[in-house]
Write a structure and sequence with these properties.
Elements: E1 2-7, E2 10-13, E3 18-26, E4 33-39, E5 46-52, E6 58-60, E7 68-73, E8 78-83, E9 92-104, E10 107-112, E11 116-121
Parallel strand pairs: 2-11
Antiparallel strand pairs: 1-3, 3-8, 4-5, 4-9, 5-6, 7-8, 9-10, 9-11
């Protein structure tokens, strides 16, 4: 079991920035990929971005392209999400997730953090 802990959420004004972090611990970490997901009130959870732990390939939700950047520190087993030019519609609980070792950026994502709230005021 991989234990994931997010941090870095908060409240910012539109146009501001936040950086989310997700530390992974537990069994030897060998997930194929990790991702950031978000869920706003009354909406389904959506994948914001993911990264291949092996080669660093990334993908992004269309609405965050050019504003968000996902990265990883393999030595620290830590995932990051730099969020710039935040918009009110980015308000949600953000979760990090890790895929199975034989998974991919598409999943399956079976290990989830507890989530961190991001609120963007207009």
């Amino acid at each position: 079991q991989v234990h994931l802990v997010e941090s870095g959420g908060g409240t910012v004004q539109a146009g501001g920035s936040l950086r989310l972090s997700c530390g992974a611990s537990g069994r030897t970490f060998n997930s194929a990929a990790m991702g950031w997901f978000r869920q706003a009130p009354g909406k389904t959870r959506e994948k914001v971005s993911s990264i291949s732990w092996r080669d660093g390939a990334t993908d992004y939700l269309e609405s965050v392209k050019g504003r968000f950047t996902i990265s990883r520190d393999s030595a620290k087993n830590t995932l990051y999400l730099q969020m710039n030019n935040l918009k009110p519609e980015d308000t949600a609980v953000y979760y990090c997730a890790a895929s199975d070792p034989d998974g991919s950026m598409m999943g399956p994502y079976r290990n989830w953090g507890q989530g961190t709230q991001v609120t963007v005021s207009s």
